[in-house]
Amino acid sequence: MKGGVVLALALAAVGCGSSGGATHGGGGQGSTTAGGAQGGASAGAAGSGGTSSGAGGGVAGVGGAFSGLHAVQGTNGRAGKIVDKNGNVLVLHGADESGTENYCTTWGPPPIVISPQGGPSPLTQDSLDAMKSWGLNTVRIPLNEDCWLGINGVDPSVGGASYQAPILAAVNLITQTNGMYAILDLHWSAPGTTLPKGQGAMPDLDHTVTFWQQVAAAYKDNGSVIFDLFNEPVMASGTNDAQFACWKNGSSTANGGDCPMVNFAVAGMQQLLTAVRGAGAQNLVMLGGVGYASQLGLWPTYVPADTLSPPNIAASWHVYDDQGGCTADGPTTVATLCGTSGLGGEAVLNAGYPIVVGETGTYSCSASVGQAWWPLFLSWADAQGIGFVAWSWSDGNSPQLLANTTTFDPGGIGPTYQQYLRCIAGKTVTPATSCTFVPNTGCE
């Protein structure tokens, strides 16, 4: 990797603390205040709520207690929150990397190429420094199950251990060296002997359970790592109830059980969550809804049972401008986000679970509408305490955040994102009183 950074760090044990503050920056970079003030990119800032030590590895604590990111259930119709290892409320602001999902099928050998569609850009310290300068604290890394498992003809030089090792180095660079948070996302998958060269419809029973057993075992001692079990579940037919039943329960045969609309055996979210916990991992788990992870209305009804109490689960939500209604009108936008006839976010908030927007950006609506809609959506999410991760930290995989991957200047939708993050830094965000609360932070 650039700069000679290849890490094999021993994780040090740390204990849990508690605090009432809210952290909006990454570990060691954001600010913590009792009133939940928005953090920026300044190093080590702390307010009256106490200092946040951020990620710091988030490994197993004294007596084996898990010390990492936790979901805290909301009560009385209030949204859940994510807290860091010290008990500080954390709002994730991040970027999606791009390239690790097709690394072993298209690119290689190491170092891992992050943005092959544009200019190749290894995940380096320079890249993370640029992210932190924008005020980002989270990196989402898309994975390919066949690359990880080294199956279906994947060359050993780029698959199996040769794929896993640079992923581990990247995660250590993010979480250990930079005190940020890493989301590992199963992005590409395929059943049987098919090599994934694109996004699958659903997790496959053939490989996905084994994939998550191995990934969970590898990262169970790093509480700064979040598992996003499947990028964008999508089915071609069926009511929302039918699709969510398949989403949760899976099937043992093609077109069987609760998944008659899927032509391969599906690993349901319950089975995947059970596999993660069975591997000894207590990490925060994200579960994307149906409809390319955009539909959350029935998510609380079908959410899998967690063996942890309280459950360490958050909803993963993908919201782009077209899904937001292609309008910059505030009330119309939030009605689309919240209502059961829209994306259904209110159901998850009312059920008390946290939400993390795993992907967001603009590319489908007209440029002027998208550029006006996106800051409104980001302000709404901040007011709700919802973290978000923008696609993508590349200069060629649309929508792109960068003009180039050498100096990491903003390009594409990047200037809008960077401007919003700089505007919101240091502001005290007025908490939403309801899902349909239209924010007024001055950064819309």
Order of secondary-structure elements? EEEEEEHHEHHEHEHHEHHEHHEHEH
Tally of helical segments: 13
- CATH third-tier fold name: TIM Barrel
Proportion of beta-strand residues:
5-15%
State the share of residues found in helices, binned by percent. Answer: 25-40%
How are the strands of the largest sheet arranged? 6-7-8-9-10-11-12-13
Tell me, rounded to a whole number, the average pLDDT. Answer: 83
CATH class, named Alpha Beta
Number of domains: 1
CATH superfamily: Glycosidases
Distance between the termini: 38 Å
The class by helix and strand makeup works out as alpha/beta
CATH architecture annotation name: Alpha-Beta Barrel
- Whole-angstrom Rg: 20 Å
Describe the structure.
This protein is an alpha/beta fold. The protein has one domain (13-424): Glycosidases (TIM Barrel). Helix content is 27%, strand content 13%. The protein is built from 13 helices and 13 strands. The protein has helices spanning 103-106, 125-134, 145-149, 161-177, 208-219, 240-249, 269-278, 290-293, 299-302, 330-338, 345-351, 367-384, 414-424, and strands at 22-23, 32-33, 70-72, 81-83, 89-90, 93-96, 138-144, 181-188, 225-228, 285-288, 313-320, 355-361, 387-391. The chain has an 8-stranded parallel beta barrel. A 5-stranded mixed sheet has the order 2-1-5-4-3, with no helix packed on it. Strand 3 (70-72) and strand 4 form a beta hairpin. Helix 5 (208-219) packs parallel to helix 7 (269-278). The radius of gyration is 20 Å and the shape is globular. The two termini are 38 Å apart.
